[in-house]
Amino acid sequence: MAVNKDSNGYTFGFAITMVVIVGAVLAAVAIATKPFKDRNDEVKKKMDIVKALMPDEEAKNAITRKNAESEFSKYVDLSTAVVINSKGEVVDGIYDVKGNVIEGSAFDVDIRKENRDKKRADEHKNYPLFMAEVDGKKAYVIPVVGKGLWGPIWGNICLDEDMNTIKGATFDHKGETPGLGAEIKQAFFINGWVGEKVADADGNFEKFEVVKDKTGTKDKKVDGITGGTITSKGVEEMVNRCLQPYMLYFKNQKN
Asked: pTM surpassing 0.90?
């Protein structure tokens, strides 16, 4: 019997068949390329951590995907990295979404994924901390994550060996506007954070303010990006929220 290609049944059947075939192909491609994506994400993560340790833009630009792993190994010892909880306590493993402590390390924590997960309670969030040594001095790299105007923003804050002074930083984004919010990646914005103190004399965290009135030279203030107010404020919220558990940890370490 001849198939009526003009019938609705044929059209729907053909469409369903194509959806199944295309879906299967895409799933197979995703599975096949996942190891390469995971590897790429690992290298990018190491590159961003090392860049936060670098003192100036020239040194940051010298860190590439090709040398990221060797430079990371030069400065960062993953065996000393820790995961802390919202109270600043070290966790022996990592929290899963239900709050159970499971096997895992600081480098395994995907803070961007955790930030998107609405089912994860704040007390069950993992806060990785990476210890480094640069020119014979200790440094501490703190990953941060938040929300900009159009999507997620993230970065790393590096503290000097006093566990208080910002030594360096990196910020990045997924879809902020070029020339506006996307400028959080640029040196002129990042340099505004360098040298700032994150805690008072008693080790208590003090919040930052990203401003647009050009008063960023004052303590705890950083000049925002012209035309990128929402993204700038997103960085402010991100830094203030993410640093607080680490200040509890550092306060305990000093005591």
From this structure: no
